[in-house]
Write a structure and sequence with these properties.
137 residues, mainly alpha, two-stranded antiparallel ribbon, 4 helices
Length: 137
């Protein structure tokens, strides 16, 4: 399988072919899988009208190249979906675990404060933090 990322630029998490000018890049208005299916359907139907289409600049080469491009786009969409879903799952897991992590942190700090309450180092540190907070307010 060819490396679809070769010769591509990454922008906002998406890979764009380097020869595509910025003004030609369009944001899809329909889901990519629907767009690709419609493009492949039109490609099959247009093969019967190849002569008429060549008169308006749509060559047979363009028609034959369309399934290859659609396949590359499907591959890129699959990679994007995998990465996007993985990120969503990580955010969901983080959201579930963050309250427990903060509770653990707070318990640990309270335990350390108690354990070192008579320590001279702790008192100096606490005084320094208190004076810093007074300066802020």
């Amino acid at each position: 399988m060819p490396n679809i990322r070769r010769g591509c630029l990454k922008r906002d998490g998406l890979f764009l072919h380097s020869s595509t000018p910025d003004e030609e890049v369009q944001i899809p208005t329909i889901p990519v899988d629907v767009f690709l299916q419609e493009a492949e359907n039109l490609c099959k139907w247009s093969l019967d009208d190849a002569r008429a289409l060549s008169a308006v600049g749509i060559t047979e080469e363009i028609l034959n190249d369309l399934p290859v491009r659609a396949g590359a786009c499907r591959e890129a969409q699959s990679i994007w979906n995998k990465d996007y879903r993985s990120q969503q799952e990580a955010q969901k897991e983080w959201a579930q675990q963050v309250p427990e992590a903060y509770d653990f942190r707070n318990d640990l700090l309270a335990s350390l404060r108690f354990a070192y309450r008579k320590s001279e180092y702790w008192r100096k540190l606490h005084r320094k933090q208190s004076s810093n907070q007074d300066d802020v307010t």
